[in-house]
Protein backbone atom coordinates (compact mmCIF):
# COMPACT_ATOMS: atom_id res chain seq x y z
CA UNK A 1 0.00 0.00 0.00
CA UNK A 2 1.10 3.57 -0.54
CA UNK A 3 1.03 5.25 2.87
CA UNK A 4 1.64 8.95 3.36
CA UNK A 5 2.73 9.96 6.87
CA UNK A 6 2.00 13.57 7.78
CA UNK A 7 3.30 15.76 10.61
CA UNK A 8 1.12 18.88 11.11
CA UNK A 9 2.26 22.49 11.00
CA UNK A 10 4.25 24.53 13.53
CA UNK A 11 2.94 25.91 16.81
CA UNK A 12 3.95 29.25 18.34
CA UNK A 13 6.99 27.81 20.05
CA UNK A 14 8.43 26.07 16.99
CA UNK A 15 8.33 29.26 14.98
CA UNK A 16 10.99 30.80 17.21
CA UNK A 17 13.02 28.57 19.47
CA UNK A 18 13.29 25.11 18.01
CA UNK A 19 11.93 22.78 15.39
CA UNK A 20 12.49 19.07 15.74
CA UNK A 21 12.61 16.09 13.48
CA UNK A 22 9.34 14.12 13.79
CA UNK A 23 11.01 11.03 15.22
CA UNK A 24 7.81 9.28 16.34
CA UNK A 25 6.32 9.48 12.87
CA UNK A 26 9.56 8.18 11.31
CA UNK A 27 9.38 5.17 13.62
CA UNK A 28 5.78 4.42 12.66
CA UNK A 29 6.63 4.84 8.97
CA UNK A 30 9.57 2.44 9.36
CA UNK A 31 7.27 -0.19 10.90
CA UNK A 32 4.98 0.06 7.87
CA UNK A 33 7.93 -0.15 5.47
CA UNK A 34 9.19 -3.30 7.17
CA UNK A 35 5.90 -4.98 6.22
CA UNK A 36 6.42 -4.05 2.56
CA UNK A 37 4.33 -0.90 2.37
CA UNK A 38 5.57 2.09 0.38
CA UNK A 39 5.95 5.07 2.67
CA UNK A 40 6.44 8.80 2.19
CA UNK A 41 6.55 11.46 4.87
CA UNK A 42 5.74 15.15 4.74
CA UNK A 43 6.42 17.51 7.64
CA UNK A 44 4.19 20.57 7.54
CA UNK A 45 6.43 22.29 10.06
CA UNK A 46 8.71 22.94 7.07
CA UNK A 47 6.49 22.37 4.03
CA UNK A 48 3.19 24.02 3.08
CA UNK A 49 -0.37 22.75 2.71
CA UNK A 50 0.05 23.38 -1.03
CA UNK A 51 3.03 20.95 -0.99
CA UNK A 52 0.81 18.42 0.77
CA UNK A 53 -1.98 18.71 -1.79
CA UNK A 54 0.54 18.44 -4.63
CA UNK A 55 1.91 15.24 -3.11
CA UNK A 56 -1.64 13.84 -2.76
CA UNK A 57 -2.37 14.55 -6.42
CA UNK A 58 0.95 13.17 -7.69
CA UNK A 59 1.38 10.08 -5.53
CA UNK A 60 -2.26 9.26 -4.74
CA UNK A 61 -1.69 7.49 -1.39
CA UNK A 62 -4.08 4.72 -0.40
CA UNK A 63 -3.70 5.64 3.25
CA UNK A 64 -2.84 8.94 4.93
CA UNK A 65 -1.63 8.75 8.55
CA UNK A 66 -1.48 11.97 10.56
CA UNK A 67 0.61 12.42 13.69
CA UNK A 68 -1.20 14.34 16.42
CA UNK A 69 1.08 14.78 19.42
CA UNK A 70 -0.16 18.29 20.12
CA UNK A 71 -3.73 19.18 20.99
CA UNK A 72 -3.33 22.55 19.26
CA UNK A 73 -2.90 20.75 15.93
CA UNK A 74 -6.29 18.96 16.05
CA UNK A 75 -8.25 21.51 13.91
CA UNK A 76 -5.54 21.58 11.23
CA UNK A 77 -5.50 17.78 11.03
CA UNK A 78 -9.30 17.49 10.90
CA UNK A 79 -9.49 20.06 8.07
CA UNK A 80 -6.68 18.37 6.13
CA UNK A 81 -8.43 15.01 6.55
CA UNK A 82 -11.68 16.45 5.19
CA UNK A 83 -9.92 17.98 2.18
CA UNK A 84 -8.08 14.69 1.57
CA UNK A 85 -11.29 12.67 1.63
CA UNK A 86 -12.78 15.00 -0.98
CA UNK A 87 -9.69 14.69 -3.20
CA UNK A 88 -9.25 10.92 -2.69
CA UNK A 89 -12.55 9.42 -1.45
CA UNK A 90 -11.18 5.85 -1.27
CA UNK A 91 -8.10 6.83 0.73
CA UNK A 92 -8.09 5.47 4.30
CA UNK A 93 -7.37 8.20 6.83
CA UNK A 94 -6.05 7.60 10.32
CA UNK A 95 -4.66 9.73 13.12
CA UNK A 96 -2.29 8.66 15.89
CA UNK A 97 0.02 10.18 18.47
CA UNK A 98 0.00 11.46 22.01
CA UNK A 99 -2.94 13.89 21.97
CA UNK A 100 -4.99 11.85 19.53
CA UNK A 101 -4.81 8.97 22.02
CA UNK A 102 -6.52 11.07 24.70
CA UNK A 103 -9.16 12.63 22.44
CA UNK A 104 -9.80 9.77 20.01
CA UNK A 105 -13.61 9.80 20.03
CA UNK A 106 -13.77 13.60 19.67
CA UNK A 107 -11.42 13.48 16.67
CA UNK A 108 -13.58 10.85 14.96
CA UNK A 109 -16.62 13.04 15.59
CA UNK A 110 -14.99 16.25 14.32
CA UNK A 111 -13.91 14.36 11.20
CA UNK A 112 -17.56 13.77 10.23
CA UNK A 113 -16.68 10.50 8.40
CA UNK A 114 -13.46 11.86 6.89
CA UNK A 115 -11.31 10.22 9.60
CA UNK A 116 -11.68 6.45 9.46
CA UNK A 117 -9.70 5.58 12.55
CA UNK A 118 -7.70 6.94 15.47
CA UNK A 119 -4.95 4.57 16.52
CA UNK A 120 -4.14 5.04 20.20
CA UNK A 121 -0.76 4.40 21.84
CA UNK A 122 2.61 3.50 20.37
CA UNK A 123 2.16 3.52 16.63
CA UNK A 124 4.79 0.93 15.69
CA UNK A 125 2.75 -1.80 17.33
CA UNK A 126 -0.64 -0.86 15.90
CA UNK A 127 0.06 0.39 12.37
CA UNK A 128 1.04 -2.98 10.90
CA UNK A 129 -2.15 -4.69 12.00
CA UNK A 130 -4.23 -1.69 10.97
CA UNK A 131 -2.80 -1.57 7.43
CA UNK A 132 -3.30 -5.32 7.11
CA UNK A 133 -7.00 -4.87 7.93
CA UNK A 134 -7.33 -1.87 5.59
CA UNK A 135 -5.98 -4.01 2.75
CA UNK A 136 -7.73 -7.27 3.50
CA UNK A 137 -10.73 -6.83 5.75
CA UNK A 138 -11.91 -3.37 6.74
CA UNK A 139 -14.60 -4.96 8.91
CA UNK A 140 -11.87 -6.22 11.26
CA UNK A 141 -10.45 -2.76 12.01
CA UNK A 142 -12.44 -2.52 15.21
CA UNK A 143 -10.44 -5.48 16.56
CA UNK A 144 -7.04 -3.81 16.10
CA UNK A 145 -5.51 -2.99 19.51
CA UNK A 146 -5.81 0.77 20.09
CA UNK A 147 -8.17 1.38 17.16
CA UNK A 148 -11.09 3.77 17.64
CA UNK A 149 -13.60 4.11 14.79
CA UNK A 150 -17.10 5.52 14.45
CA UNK A 151 -18.33 1.98 15.23
CA UNK A 152 -16.48 1.58 18.50
CA UNK A 153 -13.19 0.84 20.13
CA UNK A 154 -10.81 -2.13 19.81
CA UNK A 155 -8.79 -3.77 22.61
CA UNK A 156 -6.22 -1.74 24.58
CA UNK A 157 -3.15 -0.69 22.57
CA UNK A 158 -0.08 -2.92 22.74
CA UNK A 159 3.49 -1.93 23.65
CA UNK A 160 6.28 -2.45 21.14
CA UNK A 161 8.09 -5.68 21.86
CA UNK A 162 11.50 -4.08 22.49
CA UNK A 163 12.84 -0.60 21.77
CA UNK A 164 15.89 -2.29 20.22
CA UNK A 165 13.69 -3.55 17.38
CA UNK A 166 12.93 0.00 16.25
CA UNK A 167 14.67 1.96 13.47
CA UNK A 168 13.40 5.40 12.45
CA UNK A 169 13.00 5.94 8.70
CA UNK A 170 15.16 9.07 8.82
CA UNK A 171 15.74 8.98 5.07
CA UNK A 172 12.06 9.82 4.46
CA UNK A 173 12.50 13.37 5.74
CA UNK A 174 12.97 15.70 2.79
CA UNK A 175 14.50 18.75 4.48
CA UNK A 176 16.82 17.51 7.17
CA UNK A 177 18.65 20.82 7.56
CA UNK A 178 15.49 22.56 8.76
CA UNK A 179 15.64 21.08 12.28
CA UNK A 180 17.35 22.98 15.07
CA UNK A 181 17.31 23.93 18.70
CA UNK A 182 18.72 27.37 19.43
CA UNK A 183 22.23 27.58 18.17
CA UNK A 184 22.39 23.78 17.62
CA UNK A 185 21.49 24.19 13.98
CA UNK A 186 21.00 21.68 12.36
CA UNK A 187 20.07 19.02 14.91
CA UNK A 188 18.61 15.52 14.64
CA UNK A 189 16.51 13.76 17.31
CA UNK A 190 17.30 10.50 19.04
CA UNK A 191 15.66 8.34 21.70
CA UNK A 192 17.51 6.47 24.50
CA UNK A 193 14.54 5.52 26.66
CA UNK A 194 10.77 5.77 26.66
CA UNK A 195 8.30 6.70 29.40
CA UNK A 196 8.47 8.34 32.80
CA UNK A 197 7.98 6.72 36.20
CA UNK A 198 6.94 9.96 37.97
CA UNK A 199 3.36 11.23 38.00
CA UNK A 200 3.26 15.02 37.88
CA UNK A 201 -0.32 16.24 37.94
CA UNK A 202 -0.03 18.52 34.87
CA UNK A 203 1.74 16.03 32.61
CA UNK A 204 0.47 13.24 30.35
CA UNK A 205 3.82 11.59 29.61
CA UNK A 206 3.21 9.05 32.41
CA UNK A 207 -0.43 8.39 31.62
CA UNK A 208 0.42 7.72 27.97
CA UNK A 209 3.07 5.09 28.74
CA UNK A 210 1.36 3.70 31.88
CA UNK A 211 4.29 4.87 34.07
CA UNK A 212 6.49 2.34 32.33
CA UNK A 213 10.14 3.07 31.68
CA UNK A 214 11.99 1.21 28.94
CA UNK A 215 15.55 1.49 27.71
CA UNK A 216 17.35 1.10 24.44
CA UNK A 217 20.60 -0.85 24.50
CA UNK A 218 23.86 1.12 24.07
CA UNK A 219 24.67 -0.93 20.94
CA UNK A 220 21.39 0.05 19.34
CA UNK A 221 21.87 3.73 20.31
CA UNK A 222 25.33 3.77 18.71
CA UNK A 223 23.98 2.18 15.55
CA UNK A 224 21.38 4.95 15.26
CA UNK A 225 23.76 7.74 16.26
CA UNK A 226 26.28 6.61 13.67
CA UNK A 227 23.65 7.15 10.94
CA UNK A 228 23.03 10.75 12.03
CA UNK A 229 24.98 13.24 9.94
CA UNK A 230 23.87 16.37 11.82
CA UNK A 231 26.40 17.79 14.30
CA UNK A 232 23.72 18.19 16.99
CA UNK A 233 21.42 15.62 18.60
CA UNK A 234 18.29 16.35 20.66
CA UNK A 235 17.64 13.50 23.09
CA UNK A 236 13.83 13.27 23.21
CA UNK A 237 13.59 11.25 26.46
CA UNK A 238 11.17 12.70 29.00
CA UNK A 239 13.78 12.44 31.75
CA UNK A 240 17.30 11.65 30.60
CA UNK A 241 19.60 9.31 32.53
CA UNK A 242 17.24 8.20 35.28
CA UNK A 243 19.56 5.19 35.48
CA UNK A 244 23.21 6.13 35.92
CA UNK A 245 24.29 2.72 34.64
CA UNK A 246 22.50 3.22 31.33
CA UNK A 247 23.82 6.78 30.90
CA UNK A 248 27.39 5.61 31.47
CA UNK A 249 27.05 2.63 29.17
CA UNK A 250 25.80 4.76 26.29
CA UNK A 251 28.45 7.40 26.97
CA UNK A 252 31.25 4.86 27.03
CA UNK A 253 30.02 3.31 23.80
CA UNK A 254 29.98 6.78 22.18
CA UNK A 255 33.52 7.44 23.38
CA UNK A 256 34.68 4.06 22.05
CA UNK A 257 33.01 4.70 18.70
CA UNK A 258 34.70 8.12 18.54
CA UNK A 259 31.38 9.87 17.79
CA UNK A 260 31.58 13.61 18.39
CA UNK A 261 28.39 15.66 18.56
CA UNK A 262 26.70 18.34 20.61
CA UNK A 263 23.81 17.07 22.72
CA UNK A 264 20.67 18.56 24.24
CA UNK A 265 18.70 16.73 26.91
CA UNK A 266 15.89 17.22 29.40
CA UNK A 267 15.99 15.91 32.95
CA UNK A 268 14.85 16.55 36.52
CA UNK A 269 16.79 18.35 39.25
CA UNK A 270 16.81 15.32 41.55
CA UNK A 271 18.04 13.00 38.79
CA UNK A 272 20.84 15.43 38.01
CA UNK A 273 21.90 15.48 41.67
CA UNK A 274 21.70 11.73 42.04
CA UNK A 275 23.70 11.00 38.91
CA UNK A 276 26.23 13.85 38.92
CA UNK A 277 29.03 11.71 37.51
CA UNK A 278 26.99 10.72 34.46
CA UNK A 279 26.31 14.34 33.57
CA UNK A 280 29.98 15.26 34.14
CA UNK A 281 30.95 12.46 31.78
CA UNK A 282 28.43 13.61 29.18
CA UNK A 283 29.76 17.17 29.35
CA UNK A 284 33.06 15.72 28.10
CA UNK A 285 31.21 13.89 25.32
CA UNK A 286 29.57 17.09 24.07
CA UNK A 287 26.53 17.72 26.28
CA UNK A 288 25.98 21.41 25.55
CA UNK A 289 22.41 22.19 26.63
CA UNK A 290 20.17 20.91 29.37
CA UNK A 291 16.54 21.64 30.14
CA UNK A 292 15.35 21.26 33.73
CA UNK A 293 11.64 21.18 34.52
CA UNK A 294 11.73 23.29 37.71
CA UNK A 295 8.09 24.40 37.24
CA UNK A 296 7.66 26.38 40.50
CA UNK A 297 9.74 28.62 42.76
CA UNK A 298 7.74 27.87 45.89
CA UNK A 299 7.09 24.65 47.81
CA UNK A 300 3.32 25.02 47.45
CA UNK A 301 3.64 25.07 43.65
CA UNK A 302 5.86 21.97 43.66
CA UNK A 303 3.33 20.17 45.84
CA UNK A 304 0.45 21.23 43.62
CA UNK A 305 2.18 19.88 40.51
CA UNK A 306 3.29 16.77 42.43
CA UNK A 307 6.89 17.20 41.29
CA UNK A 308 8.07 15.03 44.21
CA UNK A 309 11.12 17.21 44.62
CA UNK A 310 11.95 20.10 46.95
CA UNK A 311 12.92 23.70 46.30
CA UNK A 312 16.27 23.06 47.98
CA UNK A 313 16.99 20.16 45.64
CA UNK A 314 16.10 22.25 42.60
CA UNK A 315 18.39 25.10 43.65
CA UNK A 316 21.20 22.66 44.36
CA UNK A 317 20.65 21.08 40.95
CA UNK A 318 20.86 24.48 39.28
CA UNK A 319 24.11 25.19 41.05
CA UNK A 320 25.55 21.86 39.98
CA UNK A 321 24.42 22.35 36.38
CA UNK A 322 26.14 25.76 36.35
CA UNK A 323 29.32 24.18 37.62
CA UNK A 324 29.33 21.87 34.60
CA UNK A 325 29.65 24.85 32.30
CA UNK A 326 26.73 23.89 30.07
CA UNK A 327 23.88 26.09 28.91
CA UNK A 328 20.90 25.43 31.20
CA UNK A 329 17.30 26.33 30.48
CA UNK A 330 14.49 25.96 33.00
CA UNK A 331 10.73 26.08 32.81
CA UNK A 332 8.40 27.90 35.20
CA UNK A 333 4.63 27.42 34.99
CA UNK A 334 2.67 30.68 35.21
CA UNK A 335 -0.72 30.23 36.83
CA UNK A 336 -3.62 32.23 35.37
CA UNK A 337 -4.20 33.32 38.96
CA UNK A 338 -0.99 35.38 38.98
CA UNK A 339 -1.32 39.13 39.45
CA UNK A 340 1.18 41.92 38.70
CA UNK A 341 2.93 41.45 42.01
CA UNK A 342 3.46 37.74 41.43
CA UNK A 343 4.85 38.35 37.95
CA UNK A 344 7.21 40.97 39.42
CA UNK A 345 8.51 38.47 42.02
CA UNK A 346 9.09 35.84 39.33
CA UNK A 347 10.83 38.37 37.05
CA UNK A 348 13.09 39.38 39.88
CA UNK A 349 13.93 35.75 40.70
CA UNK A 350 14.59 34.92 37.07
CA UNK A 351 16.86 37.92 36.61
CA UNK A 352 18.97 36.83 39.56
CA UNK A 353 19.86 33.46 38.05
CA UNK A 354 22.01 33.00 34.95
CA UNK A 355 19.85 30.29 33.34
CA UNK A 356 17.56 30.75 30.35
CA UNK A 357 14.02 30.78 31.76
CA UNK A 358 11.03 29.64 29.76
CA UNK A 359 7.57 30.54 31.08
CA UNK A 360 4.63 28.41 30.08
CA UNK A 361 1.01 28.83 31.21
CA UNK A 362 -0.71 26.28 33.42
CA UNK A 363 -2.95 24.41 30.97
CA UNK A 364 -5.06 21.38 31.83
CA UNK A 365 -4.64 18.80 29.05
CA UNK A 366 -6.79 15.73 28.43
CA UNK A 367 -4.87 12.77 29.82
CA UNK A 368 -3.56 14.70 32.81
CA UNK A 369 -4.86 14.65 36.32
CA UNK A 370 -5.42 18.42 36.31
CA UNK A 371 -7.82 17.95 33.40
CA UNK A 372 -10.05 16.07 35.87
CA UNK A 373 -9.40 18.07 39.04
CA UNK A 374 -9.29 21.63 37.72
CA UNK A 375 -12.31 23.30 39.26
CA UNK A 376 -11.97 26.54 37.35
CA UNK A 377 -14.05 26.62 34.19
CA UNK A 378 -12.18 26.73 30.91
CA UNK A 379 -12.59 30.11 29.26
CA UNK A 380 -12.13 28.60 25.81
CA UNK A 381 -12.58 25.21 24.18
CA UNK A 382 -10.56 26.07 21.10
CA UNK A 383 -7.91 23.34 20.58
CA UNK A 384 -5.55 25.86 18.99
CA UNK A 385 -5.18 27.74 22.26
CA UNK A 386 -4.04 24.65 24.19
CA UNK A 387 -0.36 25.24 23.48
CA UNK A 388 0.84 26.41 26.93
CA UNK A 389 1.35 29.88 25.48
CA UNK A 390 -2.32 30.90 25.78
CA UNK A 391 -4.45 31.15 28.94
CA UNK A 392 -7.33 28.69 28.69
CA UNK A 393 -8.36 29.04 32.35
CA UNK A 394 -9.89 32.28 33.66
CA UNK A 395 -7.22 34.78 34.63
CA UNK A 396 -7.37 36.81 37.85
CA UNK A 397 -6.16 39.89 35.94
CA UNK A 398 -8.17 40.96 32.89
CA UNK A 399 -6.83 38.74 30.06
CA UNK A 400 -5.09 41.58 28.25
CA UNK A 401 -3.24 42.63 31.40
CA UNK A 402 -2.27 39.03 32.14
CA UNK A 403 -0.76 38.66 28.66
CA UNK A 404 0.86 42.08 29.03
CA UNK A 405 2.64 40.89 32.20
CA UNK A 406 3.55 37.56 30.64
CA UNK A 407 5.03 39.11 27.52
CA UNK A 408 6.90 41.68 29.60
CA UNK A 409 8.39 38.86 31.67
CA UNK A 410 9.27 36.80 28.60
CA UNK A 411 10.84 39.84 26.89
CA UNK A 412 12.93 40.68 29.95
CA UNK A 413 14.14 37.11 30.10
CA UNK A 414 14.85 36.93 26.39
CA UNK A 415 16.90 40.14 26.53
CA UNK A 416 18.79 38.86 29.56
CA UNK A 417 20.62 36.57 27.15
CA UNK A 418 21.00 39.05 24.36
CA UNK A 419 22.83 41.93 25.96
CA UNK A 420 26.03 43.81 25.19
CA UNK A 421 28.12 41.09 26.84
CA UNK A 422 26.62 38.13 24.99
CA UNK A 423 25.85 39.88 21.69
CA UNK A 424 29.34 39.50 20.15
CA UNK A 425 29.38 35.73 20.78
CA UNK A 426 25.80 35.32 19.45
CA UNK A 427 26.65 37.43 16.41
CA UNK A 428 29.78 35.41 15.76
CA UNK A 429 27.97 32.07 16.07
CA UNK A 430 25.12 33.34 13.89
CA UNK A 431 27.57 34.35 11.19
CA UNK A 432 29.24 30.96 11.33
CA UNK A 433 25.83 29.28 10.87
CA UNK A 434 24.91 31.57 7.97
CA UNK A 435 28.22 30.84 6.27
CA UNK A 436 27.27 27.14 6.41
CA UNK A 437 23.85 27.91 4.96
CA UNK A 438 21.99 27.33 8.27
CA UNK A 439 19.39 30.06 8.78
CA UNK A 440 16.98 28.47 11.27
CA UNK A 441 18.42 30.01 14.44
CA UNK A 442 18.79 33.49 12.96
CA UNK A 443 15.30 33.41 11.43
CA UNK A 444 13.84 32.34 14.78
CA UNK A 445 15.46 35.31 16.52
CA UNK A 446 14.16 37.71 13.89
CA UNK A 447 10.66 36.26 14.16
CA UNK A 448 10.41 36.64 17.95
CA UNK A 449 8.92 40.19 18.02
CA UNK A 450 6.41 39.29 15.31
CA UNK A 451 5.22 36.10 17.04
CA UNK A 452 5.06 37.08 20.71
CA UNK A 453 2.68 40.06 20.48
CA UNK A 454 -0.16 41.15 22.72
CA UNK A 455 -2.52 41.97 19.84
CA UNK A 456 -1.81 38.59 18.26
CA UNK A 457 -2.51 36.66 21.47
CA UNK A 458 -5.76 38.58 21.98
CA UNK A 459 -6.78 38.09 18.35
CA UNK A 460 -6.24 34.32 18.73
CA UNK A 461 -8.91 34.32 21.44
CA UNK A 462 -11.32 36.24 19.21
CA UNK A 463 -11.09 33.75 16.32
CA UNK A 464 -14.04 31.55 15.46
CA UNK A 465 -13.75 28.12 17.11
CA UNK A 466 -14.32 25.51 14.41
CA UNK A 467 -14.06 22.49 16.70
CA UNK A 468 -14.68 22.49 20.44
CA UNK A 469 -12.72 20.31 22.77
CA UNK A 470 -15.19 18.18 24.79
CA UNK A 471 -15.30 19.08 28.45
CA UNK A 472 -14.27 16.62 31.15
CA UNK A 473 -17.17 15.36 33.20
CA UNK A 474 -17.71 17.23 36.51
CA UNK A 475 -14.48 18.20 38.27
CA UNK A 476 -13.22 15.49 40.61
CA UNK A 477 -11.25 15.81 43.84
CA UNK A 478 -7.61 14.67 43.57
CA UNK A 479 -7.90 11.13 45.02
CA UNK A 480 -10.90 10.26 42.84
CA UNK A 481 -9.14 11.64 39.76
CA UNK A 482 -6.16 9.42 40.48
CA UNK A 483 -8.35 6.36 40.69
CA UNK A 484 -9.97 7.15 37.35
CA UNK A 485 -8.18 5.46 34.49
CA UNK A 486 -6.17 8.11 32.73
CA UNK A 487 -3.89 5.65 31.01
CA UNK A 488 -3.52 4.92 27.30
CA UNK A 489 -1.16 2.00 27.97
CA UNK A 490 -2.16 0.14 31.14
CA UNK A 491 0.25 0.60 34.09
CA UNK A 492 1.30 -3.03 34.50
CA UNK A 493 4.91 -4.14 34.74
CA UNK A 494 6.19 -4.41 31.23
CA UNK A 495 8.69 -7.21 31.17
CA UNK A 496 8.60 -9.29 28.08
CA UNK A 497 11.34 -11.85 27.68
CA UNK A 498 13.59 -9.74 25.48
CA UNK A 499 13.47 -6.67 27.73
CA UNK A 500 13.90 -8.72 30.88
CA UNK A 501 17.14 -10.21 29.60
CA UNK A 502 18.42 -6.75 28.80
CA UNK A 503 21.12 -5.65 31.30
CA UNK A 504 19.41 -2.32 32.00
CA UNK A 505 15.81 -3.41 31.79
CA UNK A 506 15.25 -4.16 35.45
CA UNK A 507 13.71 -0.86 36.50
CA UNK A 508 11.40 -1.51 39.43
CA UNK A 509 8.23 0.47 38.94
CA UNK A 510 6.62 2.30 41.85
CA UNK A 511 3.12 1.57 43.02
CA UNK A 512 0.79 4.21 41.60
CA UNK A 513 0.49 6.06 44.92
CA UNK A 514 4.00 5.56 46.19
CA UNK A 515 5.24 8.80 47.75
CA UNK A 516 8.95 8.28 47.04
CA UNK A 517 10.88 11.04 45.30
CA UNK A 518 12.57 8.82 42.80
CA UNK A 519 10.40 5.91 41.77
CA UNK A 520 12.25 2.73 41.15
CA UNK A 521 15.61 4.30 40.55
CA UNK A 522 16.80 5.55 43.93
CA UNK A 523 19.39 2.86 44.36
CA UNK A 524 20.62 2.94 40.82
CA UNK A 525 24.13 4.29 41.29
CA UNK A 526 26.31 1.49 40.06
CA UNK A 527 28.43 2.27 37.06
CA UNK A 528 28.26 -0.27 34.23
CA UNK A 529 31.59 -1.98 33.78
C1 LIG B 1 10.45 16.00 22.48
C2 LIG B 1 9.18 16.73 22.84
C3 LIG B 1 9.02 17.98 22.32
C4 LIG B 1 9.91 18.57 21.28
C5 LIG B 1 9.24 18.38 19.89
C6 LIG B 1 9.35 17.02 19.31
C7 LIG B 1 8.62 16.94 17.95
N1 LIG B 1 9.29 17.04 16.86
O1 LIG B 1 7.42 16.79 17.91
C8 LIG B 1 9.84 20.05 21.65
C9 LIG B 1 10.84 20.38 22.70
C10 LIG B 1 9.97 20.99 20.47
C11 LIG B 1 8.46 20.11 22.26
C12 LIG B 1 7.76 21.25 22.33
C13 LIG B 1 6.50 21.33 22.86
N2 LIG B 1 5.87 20.35 23.53
CO1 LIG B 1 6.53 18.55 23.65
N3 LIG B 1 7.13 16.83 24.05
C14 LIG B 1 8.19 16.17 23.69
C15 LIG B 1 8.21 14.80 24.38
C16 LIG B 1 9.08 14.93 25.64
C17 LIG B 1 8.70 13.62 23.59
C18 LIG B 1 8.10 13.48 22.19
C19 LIG B 1 8.87 12.43 21.44
O2 LIG B 1 9.62 12.71 20.54
N4 LIG B 1 8.73 11.18 21.88
C20 LIG B 1 9.39 10.06 21.30
C21 LIG B 1 8.66 9.58 20.04
C22 LIG B 1 9.26 8.30 19.58
O3 LIG B 1 7.34 9.37 20.42
P1 LIG B 1 6.08 10.15 19.83
O4 LIG B 1 6.46 11.33 19.05
O5 LIG B 1 5.11 10.35 20.93
O6 LIG B 1 5.47 9.10 18.81
C23 LIG B 1 4.91 7.88 19.24
C24 LIG B 1 3.40 7.91 19.53
O7 LIG B 1 2.92 9.17 19.93
C25 LIG B 1 2.76 7.41 18.29
N5 LIG B 1 2.55 8.29 17.15
C26 LIG B 1 3.06 9.49 16.85
N6 LIG B 1 2.64 9.91 15.65
C27 LIG B 1 1.84 8.95 15.16
C28 LIG B 1 1.14 8.86 13.97
C29 LIG B 1 0.38 7.73 13.72
C30 LIG B 1 -0.37 7.62 12.45
C31 LIG B 1 0.31 6.69 14.68
C32 LIG B 1 -0.50 5.48 14.43
C33 LIG B 1 1.00 6.79 15.88
C34 LIG B 1 1.77 7.91 16.11
O8 LIG B 1 3.70 6.44 17.88
C35 LIG B 1 5.02 6.96 18.05
C36 LIG B 1 6.00 5.85 18.25
O9 LIG B 1 5.70 5.07 19.38
C37 LIG B 1 6.69 14.64 24.73
C38 LIG B 1 6.39 13.76 25.92
C39 LIG B 1 6.21 12.35 25.48
N7 LIG B 1 6.70 11.45 26.23
O10 LIG B 1 5.65 12.06 24.44
C40 LIG B 1 6.28 16.10 24.96
C41 LIG B 1 4.85 16.52 24.68
C42 LIG B 1 4.38 15.82 23.42
N8 LIG B 1 4.96 17.97 24.46
C43 LIG B 1 3.99 18.66 24.96
C44 LIG B 1 3.85 20.07 24.86
C45 LIG B 1 2.72 20.69 25.61
C46 LIG B 1 4.75 20.84 24.11
C47 LIG B 1 4.63 22.35 23.81
C48 LIG B 1 3.25 22.77 23.33
C49 LIG B 1 4.90 23.16 25.06
C50 LIG B 1 6.26 23.48 25.44
N9 LIG B 1 6.42 24.74 25.70
O11 LIG B 1 7.14 22.65 25.52
C51 LIG B 1 5.71 22.60 22.75
C52 LIG B 1 5.12 22.80 21.36
C53 LIG B 1 5.69 21.91 20.31
C54 LIG B 1 5.39 22.28 18.90
N10 LIG B 1 5.10 21.32 18.04
O12 LIG B 1 5.40 23.43 18.54
C55 LIG B 1 2.99 17.76 25.62
C56 LIG B 1 1.78 17.54 24.72
C57 LIG B 1 0.54 17.98 25.37
C58 LIG B 1 -0.60 17.96 24.41
N11 LIG B 1 -1.51 17.06 24.74
O13 LIG B 1 -0.67 18.70 23.46
C59 LIG B 1 3.83 16.46 25.85
C60 LIG B 1 3.01 15.19 25.89
C61 LIG B 1 4.56 16.61 27.20
C62 LIG B 1 3.68 16.75 28.40
N12 LIG B 1 4.17 17.48 29.33
O14 LIG B 1 2.62 16.27 28.59
N13 LIG B 1 8.09 18.89 22.69
S1 LIG C 1 8.94 14.10 35.59
FE1 LIG C 1 8.59 15.26 33.67
S2 LIG C 1 7.89 13.75 32.16
FE2 LIG C 1 7.74 12.80 34.17
S3 LIG C 1 5.62 13.13 34.83
FE3 LIG C 1 6.83 14.86 35.65
S4 LIG C 1 6.77 16.47 34.09
FE4 LIG C 1 6.05 14.55 33.11
Task: Give structural notes.
It is built from 21 helices and 17 strands. It has 529 residues and is α/β, with parallel strands linked by helices. It has a seven-stranded mixed sheet with strand order 3-1-4-5-6-7-8, with helices on both faces. α14 links the parallel β16 and β17. α8 packs across α9 and α9 packs parallel to α11. The protein is globular. The protein starts with a strand and ends in a 29-residue tail after the last helix. Bound molecules: cobalamin and iron/sulfur cluster. Cobalamin binds next to α1, β4, β5, α4 and α6.
Alpha-carbon distance between the two ends = 46 Å
Radius of gyration: 22 Å
- Provide the β-strand percentage band: 5-15%
Number of distinct helices: 21
| Ligands and ions found | cobalamin, iron/sulfur cluster
Taking the sheet with the most strands, its summary is: 7 strands, mixed
Main-sheet strand order equals 3-1-4-5-6-7-8
Indicate the structural class.
alpha/beta
Tell me, rounded to a whole number, the average pLDDT. 87
Give the oligomeric state.
Answer: single chain
Measured as a percent range, the helix fraction is 25-40%
Shape: globular
Low-pLDDT residue intervals, each spanning 5 or more residues? 494-529
Total strands: the figure is 17
Amino acid sequence: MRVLFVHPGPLLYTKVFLRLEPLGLELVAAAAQREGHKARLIDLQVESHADYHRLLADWRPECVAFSCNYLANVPEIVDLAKATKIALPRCFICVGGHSASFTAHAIIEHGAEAIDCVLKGEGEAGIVKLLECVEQDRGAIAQVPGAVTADGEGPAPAFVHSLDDLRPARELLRHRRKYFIGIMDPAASIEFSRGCPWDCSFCSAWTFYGRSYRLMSPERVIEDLACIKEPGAFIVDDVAFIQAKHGFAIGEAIARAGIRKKYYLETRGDVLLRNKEVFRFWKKLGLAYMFLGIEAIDEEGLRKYRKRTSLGQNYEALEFARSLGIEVAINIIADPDWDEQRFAVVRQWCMEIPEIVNISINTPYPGTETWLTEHRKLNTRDYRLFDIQHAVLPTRLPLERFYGELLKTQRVLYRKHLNWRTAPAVLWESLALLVHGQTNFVQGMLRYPRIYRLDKLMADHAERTPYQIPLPSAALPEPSAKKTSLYVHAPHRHRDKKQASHPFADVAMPAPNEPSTAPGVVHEQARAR
